[in-house]
Write a structure and sequence with these properties.
The protein has 254 residues and is of the alpha/beta class. The protein folds into two domains: 60 residues, Winged helix-like DNA-binding domain superfamily/Winged helix DNA-binding domain (Arc Repressor Mutant, subunit A, Orthogonal Bundle); 185 residues, Rossmann fold. 38% of the residues lie in helices and 25% in strands. Helix 6 links the parallel strand 4 and strand 5. The chain is globular and about 60 Å long.
Length: 254
């Protein structure tokens, strides 16, 4: 059962994707009693975050400045959900995991609700919020400088935080992944944290939707040879998939 603040965040998340929605339809998408959810709507309206009129609830766009991560969550969402469902079958109960930033990694976190005894070390605030609500999952956050666009912690303190631990698996995202260039990113600030996760993990799992395969980002993260598993979509470039497999990457298509 979600806590009240988590329900309110969920309401805002839904409205960021739809902008407006009938109140009854919104309530049907949420956990909790209708009375509790209507109280949440009144609180959000009093804070000026939403408005309600004639049975329709709307997001107050003048107060919302979407981050890069929030925009990414709405792009290829079904493809990312397919990836997430495939990844959770690779994770065993009781494991210690690194979770990177990014929308696809966040979708994976949302699928871990039934896994018991996990310890997740992350620099992603959305991942920490998602998993922190689950009593049988222990979440450890790095320190660091807050980056608004990806809602994560970066810098030397975040990298040191990662290097304080050893994990069985690192689940990392990618802005690009090719056999020649490996995993690449467009975010130089977070690149060091991701590299630290790769260094301290026994196994590296890359989660990337089909648009990222065969694409090169500007910041190198890790070579293809260091990646154990890629989970992507069946729509991915098949020639590039074969090239990655030739480098020893196990590819799972969802």
């Amino acid at each position: 059962m979600l806590k009240p603040w988590q329900r309110r965040e969920k309401i805002l998340e839904i409205l960021r994707g739809a902008y407006e929605m009938p109140v009854n339809e919104l309530i049907s998408k949420l956990e909790g009693s209708p009375a509790s959810l209507r109280r949440d709507l009144r609180i959000l309206e009093a804070r000026g975050l939403i408005s309600r009129k004639h049975g329709i609830v709307k997001l107050n766009l003048s107060l919302w400045h979407p981050s890069n991560l929030e925009r990414k969550l709405s792009v290829c969402s079904e493809e990312k959900k397919r990836i997430a469902k495939a990844v959770v079958s690779l994770i065993k109960e009781g494991e210690v995991l690194f979770f990177d930033t990014g929308s696809t990694v966040l979708y994976v976190a949302r699928e871990l609700r039934n896994h018991k005894g996990l310890m997740v070390i992350t620099n992603s605030l959305p991942v920490a919020r998602e998993l922190g609500a689950i009593p049988h999952i222990k979440v450890i956050m790095t320190g660091g400088i807050y980056q608004h666009d990806e809602q994560c912690l970066v810098g030397s303190m975040a990298e040191q935080g990662i290097r304080s631990y050893k994990a069985s698996k690192a689940v990392i995202g990618a802005d690009g992944f090719t056999a020649a260039e490996g995993v690449t990113s467009h975010d130089p600030e977070n690149a060091g944290v991701t590299r630290a996760m790769v260094e301290r993990a026994g196994e590296v799992i890359v989660v990337a939707d089909y648009r990222k395969i065969g694409v090169r980002g500007v910041v190198p993260i890790v070579s293809a040879e260091r990646v154990d598993i890629l989970v992507t979509n069946c729509e991915a470039d098949q020639e590039e998939i074969r090239a990655l497999e030739a480098k020893g990457v196990r590819v799972i298509l969802s």
